[in-house]
Amino acid sequence: xxxxxxxxxxxxxxxxxxxxxxxxxxxxxxxxxxxxxxxxxxxxxxxxxxxxxxxxxxxxxxxxxxxxxx
Length: 70
What we know:
Blueprint: H1 2-8, H2 10-30, H3 33-47, H4 63-68
């Protein structure tokens, strides 16, 4: 899956971290706790190089293992 491979790439990881920071900023301005939680979630999965959607497509959970698939 191209989407999963992109999300496991360095650009996908950066995108997830940026989305997480944006959600935290949006949560601060709107005073919404749920947005904080989603923001932290996106930052954590981007920083620890995991892809939570990959197991749904029968691919490994770890980003390094996904990138090793040819």
